[in-house]
Amino acid sequence: MGGCTLNSKMWVQILVGLNIISKAHGFSGGIFPQSCGSLLPEHDAFRPETSNPPFAVAFEFSRHPGDPVTVVLRSEGSTRFRGFMLDAQNSSSISSSSPVGQFLLLDSDISRLLDCYGSKGTAVSQKNNQAKSQVKVNWTAEGEEKDVIFRATFLERFDRFWDPISVHLPRFTTTMEPSSPEPSSPEPSSPEPTSPELSTKTDVTQTWEPTPKNSSEHTKKVAIILMCLDSIVEEVKMEVFNIQTFLFASKPFNFGLIKMSLLITSSLTFAADVASLVLFRVFPFEVAPVALVSVLVCFTSVELLAAFMPIGPSHELKPIWELVLRGCFALHHIFTTAVIFLGVVRSTDVDRRQNGGRSWTLIVMVAFSVWILLTHIWNLVLCFLKQTILDRNQTDQSKPTRRIRTWSLSATTVALIITSVTLAVGTAAFAIAVIFGIMEEP
């Protein structure tokens, strides 16, 4: 009895484990009838791309009307797709869940038929998750001629797939193309060809079902450009704060200038962050940019609050005030760079990466990220050496031979100013280069 119970528990555990494995495996084999309407994979954490996919749908016609049409799904460049879904709909009732015709497989090793809405063979998907550059299937109308629209979805990887594209099936034409020029004198004895030669391939440019993609892409670019400008202002704010804090913070008037510059620059970054958040949130919602920019708004709010705090040059909380500000500057800059990097990666089209190449905008963005890392290493060094630098400046200014040269600068001070200005100018140059790259993207 105990052995029977043990065996029952073992089989239950095996079945549960197999169920978990099947769930984890997902639908890489292409069986996902729940996507018959949207054609989209159910990857809840990821949204479909709204940019122009690097794939196309084309048609190949046979020589005779009524024969099946060959539908070709293909890559336009070096990027290949691992998953896809294809169906055919009547253009007059594309939203009524009424598939048209039936598909016939040409290669059962890479594609499989799906039965959507109770009709057999009305959709096609991948059979495995191997990379593919081209898939061909046959489609037959099975009835009177209709105005047919083919819908196709492509998946490059689990976290990157595109909204369905819609392509109208061209009308069959009997235009013939002679295989060779006719001779000057006819030869009656030569046999006539049994069938005319027909142009067999028609490329179709995909059209977009969803609304205003171009407007959406333009809006995203504006948001990324605002983030680039935010990065410039944040770097300038940080370096100006360094110069003012190390050189001119001992007097109340100079410290007031520090807080005034902090207020102005923080107001500019706050405006850029809020505008970017609105643009990312209103148009096709994406979790990552919205979350990152929301954190940026919090950091900028802290910076603005610090500018209004009644902290003076000799206030006991001044060291903590400076430390909090430097932390906000660093985190603000890092999160801003992350938003820009994410936007550049997602806006980089495959046309700029053909034949194994890389987008120059992406290369500049990588260099930009390294440059930002250097700026924060510099600021970290300043934090540790702050007291040493201040003591040296005070010693230099207290020497009798230098009292008449109050505004003379020590070598350490000159090095600090030159390095800070260089970092600010470099950040601005990289950010402007990224802006131009984003604007050139189609």
UniProtKB/TrEMBL annotation:
**Compositional bias ranges of the Polar residues kind:** 201-214
Q: Which residues cross the membrane?
A: 260-283, 289-311, 323-345, 360-385, 406-439
Subcellular localization = Secreted
What ranges does the record give for the region Disordered, renumbered to this chain?
173-215
Residues spanning the signal sequence: 1-26
Q: Where is the composition biased (Pro residues)?
A: 180-194
- GO BP of this protein: defense response to bacterium; innate immune response
Q: Name one Pfam family in it.
A: Reeler
Q: Which InterPro entries match?
A: Ferric-chelate_Red/DefProt, Reeler_dom, Reeler_sf
**Ranges for the Reelin domain?**
17-186
Main localization, broad class = secreted
Protein family according to the UniProt entry: Belongs to the insect defense protein family.
Q: Which PANTHER family match?
A: CELL WALL INTEGRITY AND STRESS RESPONSE COMPONENT 4-LIKE-RELATED (PTHR45828:SF9), CYTOCHROME B561/FERRIC REDUCTASE TRANSMEMBRANE (PTHR45828)
Q: What is this protein called?
A: Reelin domain-containing protein
Q: What organism is listed for this UniProt entry?
A: Oryzias latipes (Japanese rice fish)
